[in-house]
Write a structure and sequence with these properties.
With 84 residues, the chain is mainly α. It has 3 helices and no strands. Keywords: Cell membrane, Membrane, Transmembrane, Transmembrane helix.
């Protein structure tokens, strides 16, 4: 159930991350949701390493990890695709 939960969290986290950090990142909402899924994986992985929890159940801490990971991935994607 862990991977499926990360995907669901990623969908939600991607939408929340786009609302928190609206910007000129390319790709629109679909790319943001995909980046949110990747961010949920990143947030779950980092949270597991630091002992903060995992993204294996629907709770507030897991959602924070997923949104935090999505924000990080969205920021990195924005920096990588930014035109100089």
């Amino acid at each position: 159930m862990g991977i499926l939960t990360w995907i669901i969290f990623g969908l939600i986290a991607g939408a929340i991350a786009k609302l928190i950090m609206p910007g000129t990142q390319g790709g629109g909402w679909l790319m943001t949701i995909i980046l949110g899924i990747v961010g949920a994986f990143v947030g779950g992985f980092v949270g597991s390493l630091l002992g903060w929890g995992t993204v294996e159940s629907f709770d507030f801490r897991s959602m924070l990890l997923a949104v935090g990971g999505a924000l990080i991935v969205l920021w990195i994607f924005g920096m990588a695709t930014r035109k100089s």
